[in-house]
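Next up, a chain.

===
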Amino acid sequence: MTRYRFGFHPNELIFIRVDAEFPFGPDSVLQARPLRPAIDMYEMEDALIVKVELPGVQVEHIDITLSEETHQLLVRGERKESVADIEGRRRCHHLEIYYGAFERLIALPPELRFDAENLSAHYRDGFLIVRLPLLPAARRIQVESS
């Protein structure tokens, strides 16, 4: 079983996770657990789709980078809690939602090649959907003698 505690950073809540069997006291060590968005990745006929779970993140706070050299997709951003949600709090009874910066480095299938000029992404219902169009696979051409 896992227990959750919280700590404060200037104007930010930080999500802290503590194992239930871990004793609290002057020697206690708390470990911050940053947001690591869950992903689905699947291949369609003409594209690789990467679906990233990002509820509560504003689209203007999302950045996507494709590295063709390392064959990785980097999704980074920040989930911000509004000042209106924080103001007036007297006491917090339960806090599990992480607010702050996050990033997820996603290894792409090494056998696939992408059309980097035609990548697209859209955000809907808390999901970022990145479409990486596939380039045709290299074909081996048989040389015939005449």
User: Anything to note?
Assistant: DSSP finds one helix and ten strands in the chain.
